[in-house]
Amino acid sequence: MNFFVGFLKFSPVFLMAGLMIAKFDALIAAPIATIYAAIVAYATEKFSFNDLLDSAVENVKEMQLVFFILMAAYAMAEAFMATGVGAAIINSALTLGLNGKTVAVTGLIVTGILSVATGTSWGTFAASAPIFLWLNHIVGGDLMLTTAAVAGGACFGDNIGLISDTTVVSSGIHKVEVIHRIRHQGVWSVSCLLLAAIVIFIVGAGMGLPDVVGNAGDAINQIPEEVWSNLNAERPSAVTLLNQVQDGVPFYMVIPLILVIGVAIKGLPTLACLGIGIISSLILGLFAGTVTSITGDDGFLKLMMTGFADAGSWVIVMMMWVGAFGGIMAKMNAFAPLSNFISRNITKVRQLMFANGLLSIAGNAALSDEMAQIVTIGPIMKNLTDENVEASEEDMYKLRLRNATFNDALGVFGSQLIPWHVYMSFYVGIATAVYPLAKFSAIDIIKYNFMAMIAVSSILILTLTGLDRFVPLFGIPSEPDVKIKKQSEKGSKEEFTSTNKAAAGK
């Protein structure tokens, strides 16, 4: 009977996963799963509607600051795409000249930088794929290697970018500052990018690719009219960026990105960093002529409104529903059986952290959406660590930093290795639309996505073995500074919590 009740409490997760795998939009899947979770909570625990509503709302309230950061992040992304910051980054790299051996490596590096500037892997891929796939066509590079490199680079900023929604949300769930997250994983993330660049170059050189040099202008000129139409319908900001790459923008338009990264390293609050990025792109855009007016339909304020609307129309609404889902699941202690199983089978903190990483990958594969994984699996990881680890507050904070990194990195990069993931469907769709001369499949892209392979494998291996201590700022505390609580201690805590809940119920 206890097994059946436990399974029933966990079943809303299976429902959410099933809906996502069945290609339901997250804005539909999350409300359905939330309503079902409320029904299960009422049936198994007899909670009243008001109790469940309070739990859902309280969980959403904890995300309020994250909502403001996301709106500002989306606004800055629009500003960087439209004022020439993104185009300046691309043109700076392309002035070096590309050939068949280097086009994939350059695609990786450029999209890595661009994704940090814009905070969006989807937007970065949509904006960069037309340039690099057609540039690859001109210089005779390997199409799938270049496509995979652009996909892997586009995810780089989504994992470490100050304005990335996944970075912000995962940090918020685990109660860590975004700036601290970036510092914690910065050296590791950049090392993964550089190692992936080396591997891609070696693979490209081994293919015997030609040394013909091409340029972005020729590549953009070869883009068919129907591709422009598709891009204009799906990603208008990508069209603006492509036009700016072709027409050229002053190189000083990279300054807003440099400013944002600089003040972030200095430790300014996230909202302040975003504000500096928005204001500096406006001022420099006025000088460069990429910003022609402040108000009006084509004005800078319209960009801000578009960013706010994009955040509010999808990611914030989805987060509110999934936050409500998490609140109800926590109210009925739905994840207790999973937490108990893991806690009974680990003896060291690193084993627990490694298990948290595996949970992130499993959740990503089950839900087929990295954001759904972050907000669903994240609270489980947090509770597992809080309830099973004995450590100082400083050391616990370091463990939370790793959990947030797990949640995000294994969500974003892990998605690149899951054929049925929505990420891969998007990438295949965009690649097919912008380069109709070839047939793309998820497997073809995955087998060359060295960036994702390196990121996923390295973070798990470094965590389990303790080798992360050799990566600056990336090490997490080990025994005896931290240790797993004894079963008797955990049992006493659970008994105390149950007693308090019972008393509160009376």
Automatic annotation (TrEMBL):
Record's compositionally biased regions (Polar residues): 497-506
Transmembrane regions listed in the UniProt entry: 20-44, 65-90, 102-135, 187-209, 249-265, 272-291, 311-330, 420-438, 450-467
This protein's GO CC annotations: plasma membrane
Pfam families: Na_H_antiporter (PF03553)
Residue stretches in coiled coil: none
Keywords for the protein's UniProt record, in alphabetical order: Antiport, Cell membrane, Membrane, Transmembrane, Transmembrane helix, Transport
Organism name: Senegalia massiliensis
Localization, UniProt: Cell membrane
Domain Na+/H+ antiporter NhaC-like C-terminal: 14-181
Membrane topology summary: Multi-pass membrane protein
Protein name per its UniProtKB record: Na+/H+ antiporter NhaC family protein
Recorded superkingdom: Bacteria
A GO term, aspect molecular function: antiporter activity
Family affiliation: Belongs to the NhaC Na(+)/H(+) (TC 2.A.35) antiporter family.
Region annotation Disordered: where it falls in the sequence: 485-506
Biased composition regions of type Basic and acidic residues, renumbered to the chain: 485-496
Classification of source organism: Bacteria, Bacillati, Bacillota, Clostridia, Eubacteriales
